[in-house]
Specification:
Layout (H helix, E strand, L loop, with lengths): L2 H8 L3 H14 L2 E3 L12 E3 L1 H16 L1
Antiparallel strand pairs: 1-2
Helix pairs in contact: 1-2
Length: 65
């Protein structure tokens, strides 16, 4: 999904969506198809399901013991 599509779907500002996507990418929770070349390109973001599952398992362990 592109950042523009996410911004429209969530009704959030584009800059807010970009900032969160950058954080999610930095943490490994999402990946992109763009590599390092992003200028002028449409970037597709994809959830890294294994990273999300791992994070959820960590949260569950923390919350439930």
């Amino acid at each position: 999904m592109t950042s523009g599509a996410i911004h429209r779907e969530l009704n959030a500002t584009y800059q807010t969506v970009l900032r969160h996507l950058q954080e999610l990418e930095s943490s490994g929770a999402v990946t992109t198809d763009a590599g390092e070349k992003r200028q002028g390109q449409r970037v597709i973001y994809v959830a890294n399901r294994d990273a999300v599952r791992s994070a959820l398992a960590g949260y569950e362990e923390y919350l439930l013991g």
